[in-house]
Amino acid sequence: MKKLYFLTFSLCLTFLLFFFAASAQNLIVNPSAEQVPTSNGWTAAQTIGSNCFGGGGWRIDGGNPNGFPAAQEGAYFFYPGCGGVTGSNLKFELYQDIDVSSEATVIDAGHYVVTFSGYKQSYDQTEADSAAMVVEFRDASRPDPVILGYITTDTAANTDGWTLYNMAETAPSGTRTIRVRLIGHSFNGTSVDSYFDNLSLTATNTLPVNWVSFTAMASAQQSLLKWQTSHEINNKGFYIERSANGVAWETIGFVAAAAGSASIYEYQFADAQPAIGINYYRIKQQDLDGKYEYSSVRNVQHQYSGRTFIFPNPADNHLSIVTQENKFKAQIIHSDGRVAATFINEKNISIQHLHPGVYYLRLVYENNRVENLKLLKH
Q1: Does the pTM of the predicted model rise above 0.70?
Q2: What is the pLDDT of residues 200-232, one digit of tens each?
Q3: Is residue 9 part of a domain?
Q4: Do 294 and 240 form a contact (C-beta atoms < 8 A)?
Q5: What is the tens place of the pLDDT at every residue in 262-312?
Q6: 228 and 200 share a domain?
Q7: Do the beta carbons of residue 76 and residue 62 sit within 8 Å?
Q8: Same structural domain for residues 291 and 335?
């Protein structure tokens, strides 16, 4: 008769996280020992015992007539084997390394949630053998590669059947490999009576939007912005922001999130009234709950055939604006976006009240065309 000792760590997750984890791919190769583990996905850290009871290679048939339990999943379960010495206090370990380096950006941003579950038990005897499962977040470039580890306390014998263990944790920054370890600890007899089965490790990207690309280019008299995403959760849409100096920003449009499910989402926006000179653009992605994040910044430069310029530049007390237009609004703007002065239809203006420094002259014409010119005040 076999006996189990029960120890369960329960971790509360939101319904949304469980939904995505349930539909995610199991990252563990050969998770129920249906193939010989040491030849299919797993590595033995210590030499295991000899083939016994028809087992071998860290697995045994759950239908074995020698008193072993039925497999929790499939026909086989993980079993260290035989070869120990009575009372020898030996540990036997099997592990699998899962490469997650392709998700480095998401991991380092703190948006990679890992969920692990597995079953274990051990034989009813005194002193009982024990079983432990360990999940380690690792970075091989560190002197100590283990960043963070989670372990089930060694299981002594009891009769409650297979014991389920599960955990969920955000992978710490720097994680590039996740190691799953199965550890059998022999205290009694010549076999290592620690059993494991039906393991699962899944990962969920909790970033609301995973950016693939963002480009901005001049197209005729417009600025054409295009961007792609490959993953969206709880996304309301994208606010388009423009700046003349990369410091002060204004919202010039909104693009709603795409409906449905796709491997790649594609968006674009045309700014029909860009300023003459350099225009800076960024995208503010906003969730349905109001949270937001910004894209990187792109810039587009536009030329105007009827060239406008100012002189002298640098200037001391007075400034002249040379333009073909007669009706316009001129604004002198600090580098932080504050308006220092406003003039209407004036081509010769006084700037003696301005402190020395860098400013921007913004010209807005009747047709809403805008020009931005850099000004240095002595």
Answers
A1: no
A2: 999 988 777 888 899 999 987 789 999 999 878
A3: no
A4: no
A5: 789 999 999 988 887 889 999 999 988 888 889 999 999 987 656 688 878
A6: no
A7: yes
A8: no
